[in-house]
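Possible regression after last week's pipeline update?

I re-ran a chain I had predicted before the update to compare outputs. Posting the input and the new output here so someone can diff against the archived version. Not blocking, just want to make sure nothing changed silently.
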Amino acid sequence: MTSNRLHMLQRIFPRWRSAQTSLCRTIVNDAVATKPKTPRVRKPKATAAASAAAKNSTTTTADTAIPKHVLEYFQTTPGMDASVLKQFPPSILRKSSLSTERFYLANRTTAARIADVLTQDLPADRLLVEVNPGPGLLTEQLLQRNVRNLRLYETDASFEARLNATFNLPKDALRIGDFNGLWRLSYLDGFDNGQRVCGMLSGIPHRKWQEEVSFRLFSVIGTVKYLRYLMNSITQQSELFSLGRYEMFLVMSPLLFSHIASTKDAGYKLYRGGTIVFQLYFEHEFLGKVPSKHFLPWCTTGGTKKLRTLHKKLIEDGAEEWYLVRIVPRRNLFDHLLPDNLSLFASFVTQHYVSRRNRIIPSLEHWIPHCGARLILNSNYTRKSSSKKDPTSGVLPSQLLKSVPLSSNDYVDNFNIFTEFGELTPAQVLTLFNEFINWSEFHQSPFMQAVESQKHKQQRFARSLDDDESADEPGELQRAKSKKSTDTL
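New output (post-update):
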């Protein structure tokens, strides 16, 4: 083949191949039928028959909003009334976590039992406060027992119309506000010098500390923040402290009860500085158990893999039954701990209970050198352990079901240089503190300088004693922080 013919074939072949490919594509495209476009048609209006069928449907919108496991429990369990669920907003029924701060009673039988406890020995003129009444199951039982001096604090405004219409409450008997969130309002007032807490407590009678209790309160709490606020109000001698002593009937989980009623044998995670302060400030008494599923929303027990075995057990126990506890500030508190020493005692506990393994003598000698010899040579500390009976002996499971009497003359047995703070009972901590502040070197010690330098932390004592919980700060709280930083600049 000559070079000219070869050159012509090289030019003609690519053109022929391209034409053949184009012809094949055209044939295939012509063979495929085009899909006709469907015109847009307006949807027909619902007929009267369709509307009636929708109304008669067994699955209503409200039932759809109720979680399936909650609805099934209320429909199948004896003594439960599923119609109560329709009185709750869907947002409350769906919310369930270990950090929930408000719960609502949803069983009439349990409401009657609690009403019997609340009205027992209740003077006719004493104010009874119910927190988060919700649909008013407990409120109805209280009114049937002729409780006339009644005040309700409801967090969710959606219950307001129903409560007023059902019970014909007197003026100012129902207030919309988060009573369990007083700790949050107090924190915000500290930033902008507001009067949120005072507004919430307005109208509650004031009495002196040594007098009878000023009011009786019922609430269901889910976190330790409310209890820390109670301790903080006494330490700072403000807000609730100004009302005098009060009587609270609180429903809480076993885990939360263990935070306030544990003994020194319960372990570090439960027997903390906050436990010691609470048992010194308050008397508590375990009254009984109530089914936890009778309160809404239900709490989940997830997210506990990082907690210790005892925590897991307490959380699992709390999934079935909660505790009804009576709590009252101690009437003779100031006979053993002077009001001027409350903030010093808070600092003393905070400083030394960072770890329960801290040894007492080396820790105190950090503030006052060579003070350990005074403790070791003190005859009150050299007694044998058999000469005194432990008031917490026999307590199971590592909890005080009822408070022991307060004492400031309870010395540690066989005290030595290896004795740790975790070995002390609350009364022994108070005894050690009173001896510590009465030494001549105390007022010139570095301890006083540490108290002054951490004064702002002491004002948030209830939040700093046991920093074992974390929560996202509300938007209002963050705005208050930003406003304070702006004012400072």
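Follow-up from reviewer: compared with the archived run. The longest helix spans residues 3-31. Marking as no regression found.
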